[in-house]
């Protein structure tokens, strides 16, 4: 049925539930997975260029390290389940756009994602990024609660 499943992750517990469901589905279908973490870019209000550069560099170093950790965790879970995997990260203010873009770029035929993630009040509702993926994805989206 499905051959290649995109699993977005933000490192949250709910995101991990989506990842686990996606891996189980991939195992049952004989599919492979692609793990994706979208790093929010650094934003600040300052006029001191040296401070901005040092702070942004520190932020990006930590963000990339976390992204690599999140993707490695997904790939480890996939390996334990006997599911082929790959993964990566991108930097964007609009995660939903990149989730859809990466699904198309990697020729994924399903996106499995959590209903919400780390984003404040939207934890109580269907997450805005999830909603945007549902609205714009040309491939099916399975939403996990």
UniProtKB/TrEMBL annotation:
CDD domains: USP-like (cd00293). Coiled coil: none annotated. It holds the Pfam family Usp. InterPro entries: Rossmann-like_a/b/a_fold, Universal_stress_UspA, UspA. It comes from the Bacteria. Signal peptide: none annotated. Residues 1-145 form the UspA domain. Belongs to the universal stress protein A family. This is Nucleotide-binding universal stress protein, UspA family. It comes from Dyella marensis.
